[in-house]
Amino acid sequence: MTTPPDLNSLNANQLRQLAAQLLAESAEDKKRLHNQQLLNDKLKHELAILKRHHFGKSSEALNAHQTSLLDELVQADIAAVEMELIRSAASTPQPAKRQPKRSPLPPELPRQIIEHEPDNTQCDCGCQLQRIGEDVSEKLDYTPGTFTVERHIRGKWACKRCERITQAPVPPQIIDKGIPTSGLLAHLLIAKYADHLPLYRQEKIFARAGLAISRSTLAEWVGRCGVALQPLVDALRKELLQQPVLHADETPVPMLAPGKKKTHRAYIWAYCSTSTATVNAVVYDFAETRAGANARTFLEGWQGKLVCDDYSGYKAGFSSGITEIGCMAHARRKFYDLHLANKSQIAEQALQQIQRLYDIEREAKALTAEARKQLRQEHSKPILESLHQWLMQHRQKMPNGSATAKAIDYSLKRWQALTRYCDDGAVPIDNNHVENQIRPWALGRSNWLFAGSLRSGQRAAAIMSLIQSAKLNGHDPYAYLKDVMQRLPTQRASAIGELLPHNWAIADKV
User: Fold this and answer.
1) At the N or C end, where does the chain have fewer CB atoms within 10 A?
2) Domain Transposase IS66 zinc-finger binding: where (predicted)?
């Protein structure tokens, strides 16, 4: 605690400086409290809307299947908002709340005894502690098809002389005082986001395994996990933006429009490092629209080489230090579609020349960046120069507006961006790598149908970022999430990078 200055010993000038300092600190405190109050009011307003949506009567034209999916999304959102409010108010004394009584876990489930005892049973006074009792808590674990119970026993040890009780601390959990283990939570997230199983399906699967867990409880767990894992996703985004070359792509995702009887088109944006980068990572960003401002916000401050398609939303970044890298696969696709439609000989010839570029890339895949650049300069660049001349010649023969003219125009208008890969061996020839990272969302759309809210979409994007990044680094996503959620409650904020997917295996061996 800082000792207050002796005002009698200060002169007039020092008193004025002290008064100015105190006024500045007071103004800063007021500003901080105001911002905290604004955040709390925002969260409470969002919570009220979610609860009204969940508990109020709805006239939305949704069928029973869609309503079931929406209910679990709203319940997860409510749990996430409540957890953020608890964190926000952690420093403010709160009145004690009566904890609801939890039903005991079924006695027929197999149990694993885990004992927690103090490291030392010798009292500070020199006496040997005596065991006087124990506290028992149970956590629900799950391996596919089988529930088990972890029975945690924390012995109580007392010193008769000084009447002191010693007990091992309660192991911290992602969900404080909850029954699920990190293994059960990891399975829940993997099934929902990687295997695309909505909670109502998981509810039935768990019931067949011997324990009925309500969908509302599962949704609460999902919401709380999303909040707990968000700092890890933020750290992953920060490391991704340190890469000199990135891929970017976006795909539509239906999202329920509040107060309407239908969904509207939201978008999931994917940003990932190249397949040859030292950091293998992908981060998804969920947004309500396809506006280019979403890409500018995510990439704010980053100046590197961006591999992307011709979408105008990325263009603003190219005037602020980002270098555009075109996608040869998109250029090729224009000619492929043309050839598929009418067996165009011009399209076939273009495809043959582009195929030669990809043959060189297969050879360059195992090379270093510098050797790859040299190979492209010697072999790919002459092919590109020849292809450019060929395209210019045939474009002059094509009438404006024809399918062939449009296919050629796409390449010619982006020619500089399409050929920049030859000048940097770390730059890929196309954007196929990120398109592969988008694919899990396309698979999920047919199962979960829509995102229930902006928050649920953002939560899905965050958890999918960790799952897909774990896969990119060769990890089993279930093993990764289980270990991370077990270690995260005690992980120092300064060392959170150890839990990122590209560092996890190394940190696990230490």
Assistant:
1) N
2) 121-163
Say yes or no to pLDDT of 181 above 80.
yes
d(CA 151, CA 135): 10
pLDDT tens, residue by residue, 6-38: 656 667 777 677 777 878 888 788 777 777 776
CB 279 within 8 A of CB 340: no
DSSP character string of 259-298: TSSSEEEEEEEEEEE-TTSSS--EEEEEESS--HHHHHHH
Cβ-Cβ contacts under 8 Å for 417 (sequence gap 6 or more): 324, 325, 326
Name the nearest CA neighbour of 249 among 275, 267, 266. 267
Q: In 3-state terms, what secondary structure has residue 510?
A: coil
- The CA distance from 29 to 452, in Å, is 37
Give the three-class secondary structure for 7.
Answer: helix
Indicate left, alpha or beta for 474 from its phi (over 0: left) and psi (-120 to 50: alpha).
left
User: What are the tens digits of pLDDT across the range 45-77?
Assistant: 556 555 655 555 443 444 444 445 555 666 676
CA distance 272 to 308: 11
From the number of C-beta atoms within 10 Å of its C-beta (0-12, 13-18, 19+), residue 492 rates as exposed
Residues 6+ apart with CB under 8 A from 74: 50, 53, 54, 219, 452, 453, 456
Q: Percent helix, strand and coil across the chain, each rounded to 5?
A: 55, 15, 30
Q: From residue 228, give the alpha-carbon distance in Å to each of 176, 232, 471.
A: 11, 8, 21
Range with the largest mean pLDDT of 71-75, 134-138, 234-238: 234-238
- Taking only Cα atoms into account, the Rg of the chain, rounded to an integer number of angstroms, comes to 29
